[in-house]
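Progress note, sequence design subtask.
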């Protein structure tokens, strides 16, 4: 689903999700407010598909608070326990009081660079992109099942895979 300028509150997903670009609650949130969301369902990308996040796939110029992912995520490209890609394009983007408990299975992709993090895969937006009071306790598992004879690129972080922004009072124990 897509939320542009919307508010999503008090939602729970318990179903397993399989596809190309997946968010446990919503695929893309742009200029939206997301609060008190919970994903319990397993998220599995199709072979060599794009990105997935436990709560939201792509978060742009939005606020995500008080949300938890318990579902296991399997990803071939960009993945995050809470969100795969978080961007401050024209405004601020904030993730606060969010928890990832689900394991993140990162599978090497010979077609692209894999980037994943316990909270967010990629966070961009310099001073306008923020993660506060959030943590990851899910395990990040790396798999190289490639039959290709080439160097595979993987960027992995306990909280964030790739960061151009700010992290405050957050931690990883996964």
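Output:
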């Amino acid at each position: 689903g897509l939320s542009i300028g919307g508010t999503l509150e008090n939602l729970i997903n318990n179903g397993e999700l399989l596809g190309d670009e997946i968010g446990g609650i919503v695929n893309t949130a742009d200029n939206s407010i997301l609060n008190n969301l919970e994903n319990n369902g397993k998220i599995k990308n199709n072979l060599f598909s794009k990105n997935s996040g436990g709560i939201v796939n792509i978060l742009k110029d939005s606020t995500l608070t008080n949300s938890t992912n318990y579902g296991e995520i399997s990803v071939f490209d960009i993945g995050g326990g809470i969100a795969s890609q978080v961007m401050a394009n024209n405004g601020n983007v904030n993730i606060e009081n969010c928890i990832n408990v689900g394991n993140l299975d990162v599978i090497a992709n010979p077609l692209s660079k894999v980037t994943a993090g316990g909270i967010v895969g990629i966070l961009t937006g310099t001073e306008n992109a923020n993660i506060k009071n959030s943590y990851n306790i899910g395990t990040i598992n790396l798999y190289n099942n490639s039959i290709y004879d080439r160097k595979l690129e993987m960027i992995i972080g306990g909280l964030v895979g790739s960061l151009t922004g700010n992290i405050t009072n957050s931690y990883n124990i996964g």
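The chain has a mean pLDDT of 91. Work on this subtask will continue into the next period as scheduled.
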